[in-house]
């Protein structure tokens, strides 16, 4: 069984293996396929039309499946690798261990956001940005440059306490756990972290930054914790809802999985704590 660990608890060898698997997926071209998929859904998901990956109830199961696909790709390179998660409510500083040169590298330089250290820097030659929203071909970050600080444990707790998964109008205006976690209203957890990292993470091609996977692994962990706390409050909507994915409706681009198939993460992996 795959165990997803807090990045702060990874051994030096686990970090090395994770980075090596990322670099091999990038070298083979498989990594950029995930970036392309994510960007396509960012562009197509709108409040007033069909929405699957974002701004909708299926935000969480869609990304759970997306992460599973990526984790399996990593494990095809190295079977020992699991997705780590970044608890940004605790590791809230640009000086946190995940930004060290031996792991993800740090923030970008002031004039253009270019990451200059670590295995994904432009100087390494191993991480060209091929799926992009502009002409810049290097990884960019601006850690903390977006104004707001990362979410606090108290803010996380306030979202976990919301008892209803989602509700009409099933988009970025909705109340409920999903939308407060996604960040279109309330204290803003998920979206705020993307903006805090900056660079490509603040765009539809956010998976260009490997921290995307650690961020979403923690979002997935928060969903699992919400499910544990609210066992009687399942996924909504159940059926017959236009433009969004109902409980047993299959999701693009896979067409073989519904939210109902993804409610139990322990069928695929566990978390370290």
From TrEMBL:
Report the PROSITE patterns cross-referenced here. TYROSINASE_1, TYROSINASE_2
Q: Which Pfam family is one of those matched by this entry?
A: Tyrosinase
The record's SUPFAM superfamilies line, in alphabetical order, gives:
Di-copper centre-containing domain
Q: Which UniProt keywords apply?
A: Copper, Metal-binding, Oxidoreductase
Q: Which residues form the Tyrosinase copper-binding domain?
A: 54-71, 209-220
Q: Which cofactor does it need?
A: Cu(2+)
Q: Does the keyword Protease apply?
A: no
Family matches, as PANTHER family: TYROSINASE FAMILY MEMBER, TYROSINASE-LIKE PROTEIN TYR-1-RELATED
Family designation: Belongs to the tyrosinase family.
Q: Which NCBIfam families match?
A: TyrosinaseMelC2
Q: What is this protein called?
A: Tyrosinase family protein
Q: Which organism is it from?
A: Streptomyces coeruleofuscus
